[in-house]
Amino acid sequence: MVKLDFYRAIDALKNGNIIVYPTDTLYGLGADIYNDDAVRKVFIIKNRSFDNPLSVAVSNIDEIDKIAFLNEKSRGLAEAFLPGGLTIILKKRNVISDVVTAGLNKVAVRIPDNKVALELLSRFGPLTATSANIHGKKTPFIIKDILMQFKKDDISEYLDIGKICGKPSTIVDASGENIKIVRLGVVSEKDILDAI
Question: Which listed site, 33, 81, 87, 134, has its alpha carbon 20 to 30 Å from 53?
Answer without folding.
Answer: 81
